[in-house]
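Hey, quick one: can you model this chain's 3D structure?
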Amino acid sequence: MERLKGKRYLCFILLILTVALTACTSSPSFELYEGNSLRIAVVGEPPEVKEEQIIFTEVSFDEMTSEELKSYDAVFIREDNLSEASESHYADVYLNSTIPFFFISAKNHIPFTVKETKYDENWSWAAGNSYAVGVLKSQEDGTLKSWNYGLYNDKKTTDNIKDVYSRIFKSIDELKSIMKKGA
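Sure thing. Here's the predicted structure for all 183 residues.
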């Protein structure tokens, strides 16, 4: 009888531990962007996202003139193109644009906005840093607005990366709303 009591007690403890551990490992529920449709130019392959109202169009560096980008809400430059994106002659494109540029898998905008600085491994994403950065220079006062987006728990997973994109879409939509009010 005493042995049966001990087994029940052990089973009860294991059940409690299982429930506790399951509760600790639950994945977060990320908010999807549910705003307006956005048109985004992408240098590189368009990312996989959960939102269906986002329209991506692949563009080349040659197509990054202010006239050609006017029909877009933002430009994403993907990780495979960051080295070329940091070439000094592109800094003027980013700093004179009327739409924001987002650099994916870069922890800082400096190699893209400061002509003397080149992108290398030191500027790429590492745990504890931003996963994506965005920039837009104010046309009114010349100040540089920047955004930083980190990964949940600094883990580079598909869901965490999709969450970064959802947050970027929200920022773009908010910026569009502000610009419409100012126009």
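One thing worth noting: The longest strand covers residues 38-43.
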